[in-house]
Amino acid sequence: MKIAIVGGGSIGLLLAAFFSEEGQDVTVCTRTAEQADAINAHGIKYQAAPDYSKIHRVSAARVDAYREVPHYAIICVKQHRLPEVCSVLQSSPIFRDSTLLFIQNGMGHVDTLRSLPQNNILVGIVEHGAQKENHHEVRHTGKGKIKIASFRGGIDKAFWGRMITGSFRIEGKDRLEFIMKEKLVVNSVINPLTSLFRVQNGDIEQNSFLTELAKLLFKETCSILGINETTDAWEHVLRVCRSTAENRSSMLIDVEEGRQTEIEAISGYLLKLAEGKGMDVPYTRFVYFGIKALERKK
């Protein structure tokens, strides 16, 4: 299969390495020519603890210079960059017959997908931890699952069922809303707390004070989303903290590097839902304004 990975961040590089390992024809569509040149020259260097690394020889091109016709286009850009990418997906004949898979945090982007003309659109969540070292190197900091569900059309179970290497396991799910809420709950706890306190994911469980703050955020998020059975959901948050214990969240890295974060897509989305329901959500409001203050500081 010919696969275009749109977005050269940590998850984009990680997925490009995974699909390459499975023998797929992979091209990474980047925002800059500099990154495309680096990937074409060096390949993607995949690193996993403690001392394993492998070079994956894949192609790369700037998004606006990509000319192949992929079977799958996997959209790994952050949510605030989706409008420009969706504009390309709407207008370019290259992607007209492609199956699209969107990998973003939050849930606010789902309504945006309704305007796309493609017949097959999937939405997925990635529970792996990954850290981008430079333009062409990615470090795998925590193993998890990749869960996908259909937004429009169907899931090719014969294709996705083959993606079962030791590091790369995909699960097809029937309930799109369930996997999106599950991911949003995790992001609403881990991303802002790790960013505000400058800690790794594992510290949320290991530091009892952070654990208490996490529980308060978790309960508030579940209330906003109407999740009643919370025991399994809380255990899932803790499992993600453990499996990605050494990972530094993407929001933390964005804060440290002075980039726009995804706080609008996560806590901002929750605040809008809560406002519509007349709910007072002080912990979500605090982390939202805390992250926005850090963005403004940079």
Automatic annotation (TrEMBL):
Catalytic activity annotation: (R)-pantoate + NADP(+) = 2-dehydropantoate + NADPH + H(+)
EC numbers on record: 1.1.1.169
Alphabetized UniProt keyword annotations: NADP, Oxidoreductase, Pantothenate biosynthesis
Positions of transmembrane segments: none
Single GO term (MF): 2-dehydropantoate 2-reductase activity
Pathway membership: Cofactor biosynthesis; (R)-pantothenate biosynthesis; (R)-pantoate from 3-methyl-2-oxobutanoate: step 2/2
Domain Ketopantoate reductase C-terminal: 181-294
Domain Ketopantoate reductase N-terminal: 3-152
Family: Belongs to the ketopantoate reductase family.
Entry function: Catalyzes the NADPH-dependent reduction of ketopantoate into pantoic acid.
The protein's name in its UniProt record: 2-dehydropantoate 2-reductase
